[in-house]
Amino acid sequence: MANVNDKVVLALIGAGGRGTQVILSIQKCAPGVEVKYVCEVDQERGGRAIEELYKQQGVRPQRIDDMRYAFDDRDVDGVMICTPEHWHALGTIRACQAGKDVYVEKNISLTIPEGRKMIEAARKYNRIVQCGYQNRSAAYNISARDYIQGGKLGKIINVKVYCMLSGHKAFPLREDTEPPEGLDWDQWLGPAPLVPYNITRHKSYNEWWDYSCGLPLADGCHAMDLARMVLGDPDHPRSAFCAGGRVLFDDTREIPDNQTITYDFGDFPFTMEASIYGGYMTKVAPEVRFGDSFPNWPFNSTRMEIYGTKGMMYLGRHGAGWQVLGKDSEIVDQEYGFFPDEMHQQDFINSIRTRNTPTSDIEEGHKSATLVHLANLSYRTGKKQLLFDGTREIITNLEQANIISQGNNRTGYQIPAII
User: Fold this and answer.
1) What would the pLDDT profile of 201-223 be if each residue is shown by its tens digit?
2) Burial 5-44 (b: 16+ CB within 10 A, else e)
């Protein structure tokens, strides 16, 4: 067992906004962390992370443009993968094969088979793989799980999850051009099909199936993962059905901005409302995230409503806390929350040192990501109900969905059949 004071050396893979935020935070909040590399294929990115890390740790990280340099360095203990989603699985698998522990941002995969291969790699090479579902490290969510599992809500009969984001913009599709100087477009595409450079694809990758699960659900996976956690982490659903489409702008985007999903978990239905429209829905305000108050639940973008035979629980992301309501809206019980990012990052470093299972292990992360994939497969195959065999992780009533689910990694970037 490593000493709690042993230095942990990290590399950041993908230095966009979220990657920069995460790496600066983990270096600051987890003692003994040094960031040796910042890997970015776009030379416009990464400079702020490097300069701020230099100020924080007194050692300037090296800029690299190929993650394999970090994988080959024996000094590196772990990597933070904060790329677009189409790189998550292959980056995680390559890191595990190189003996590195991994923190991988949400949504952790682009397809169902990718997630299963990530689990195989983590187990075969005895690696820590922490998913970026930080809600699992929050004390108030653990107490919500204990409250429900202790039977205080009674039998759970209905679960409603929301990620209703505000606003959106028109989507002017630009013409193809040469890649800008300083961008390795081939490496950015990686596993995705080789296509000419297009700034719309590059800067708005969340609108394309080749690179993303779509912004409503790429964010909504946090809420579904938290709901699964407090419900005791049920296994895969029996079926999934997704309706929806484009609401604000009927344009060239592949990704819908409105999705209503129903999952059958056997003992209870589980629904998800994922959307990007309407400025009246808001995420949790800072005074709630870091203070003792609750959001206005009906207009909170990322709430959960968990209905039991004894009461209903409001539960929120971002430190929103939870409240249980009974007859006549009486508050039966409640607990304030606190924004859990730092606790989650500290848990990753502690897991590297102790080899204990992290709070958001790849196994449960994969099951939560599968909810996203099933919803999108239903939508992409004509809004059909998909029957799911959770043991074999295949759709049993529509082969077209399985074909899409296999993905289409290009030559040189395939995930190996044998990890």
Assistant:
1) 999 999 999 999 998 999 999 99
2) eeebbbbbbbbbeebbebbbebbeebeebbbbbbbbbbee
Instruction: Provide the residue type at 268 as one letter.
Output: F
The CA-to-CA distance between both ends of the chain, in Å, stands at: 27
Compute CA 137 distance to the chain's CA centroid, rounded to the nearest angstrom: 14
pLDDT digits (tens, 9 = 90+) for 311-368: 999 999 999 999 999 999 999 999 999 999 999 999 999 999 999 999 999 999 999 9
With a pLDDT cut of 90, the percent of the chain lying above it is: 94
Q: Which residues of 312-331 are buried (b: 16+ CB within 10 A; e: fewer)?
A: bbbbbbbbbbbbbbeeeeee
CB neighbourhood size of 356 (10 A): 12
Cβ atoms of 109 and 211 closer than 8 Å: no
Spatial separation of the C-alpha atoms in residues 223 and 226, rounded to whole Å: 5
- Interhelix angle for 139-149 vs 215-230, to 10°? 50
Domains belonging to the chain, first-starting first, are 8-135+342-361 (3.40.50.720), 139-340+362-419 (3.30.360.10)
Residues 247, 257 contacting (CB under 8 angstroms): yes
Using DSSP, state whether 304 is helix, strand or coil.
Answer: strand
Summarize the chain as % helix, strand, coil (round to 5). Answer: 35, 20, 45
Phi then psi for residue 321, to 5 deg, are 80, -170
Q: List 323's β-bridge partners, or say none.
A: 314, 334
Neighbour tally for 412: CB within 10 Å: 8
Contact 215, 203 (CB under 8 A): no
pLDDT at position 247, please? 87
CA-to-CA dists, residue 109 to 85, 132, 217, 232, 378, angstroms: 6, 11, 12, 22, 17
Confidence of residue 1 (pLDDT cuts 50, 70, 90): very low
